[in-house]
Amino acid sequence: MKLSKIVAATATAAAVISLAACSDDSSDPKTSKSATSSEASSAAEAAPAELPTAEELNAILAVATDPAAPVEQKVATVQGGETAPELFETMTASKQESGANFQVVPPILPGYTPNSVLATVNFTLPGKEAQPAENVEFIYENGTWKLSQSWACTLIKNTVAPEQIPAMCADPAAPAPEGQPAPEQAPAPEAPAPEQAPAPEAPAPQ
Predict the structure, then answer these.
(1) Where in this chain does the record put each Low molecular weight antigen MTB12-like C-terminal domain (predicted)?
(2) pLDDT tens digits, residue range 121-168?
(3) Which domain holds residue 14?
């Protein structure tokens, strides 16, 4: 597989060099070389990463919920984790309090984008049967695999009380938490009282 990729890359590079040689003689060779390097760099960045193993993805979940792991390591395990470090406090506390366990099982399949994969995660609680969550998405970002933000929030919502859900995962349409008064509704405008018809005049005595 790697050999075929190398052969394909070599053929592509040869084609680019041939096109550059056939271009206008007045073109700057340095500019052509720079453009070729830039194109190669972009292609390398867009190339899909190799599929991870179930063990590698389990290690990511283990770090995310490890109370001894530094925050710097934890934020690199969930997509967008650097913007919500409180997410990991909730994940860790949830695992400790409930005894919940997450286990990635093979197979690991290609995801919705070139740099994503889908996996099945078995969710277990003490004394209960494992509940499989299918198509859990992991994203390859900044050179490492991460649990997608949407699935991190899904796992949290299934293990903590609603008031413990971090803002990153809160439903904007959810009702206000208990203890906070709901916004008062403005009273409806009072309708004007209906005017009474005048009493009929009594006939004059004859």
Answers:
(1) 51-162
(2) 998 888 888 889 999 999 999 889 999 999 988 878 877 778 878 787
(3) 7-46
Taking all residues of the chain, what is their mean pLDDT, rounded to a whole number? 71
Give SS3 for 135. Answer: strand
The neighbouring-strand residues paired with 141 are 144
Based on the domain organization, do 85 and 13 belong to the same domain?
Answer: no
Cα four-point dihedral sign 33, 34, 39, 45: positive
What's the order of all strands across the beta sheet hosting 101-110?
Answer: 101-110, 116-124, 131-141, 144-147
Within 10 angstroms of residue 131's Cβ, the number of other Cβ atoms is 11
What's the pLDDT score for residue 116?
93
Cα gap 139→95, rounded to integer Å: 23
| One domain for residues 73 and 156 | yes
| Angle between helix 86-98 and 149-157 (nearest 10) | 40
pTM of the complete model beyond 0.70: no
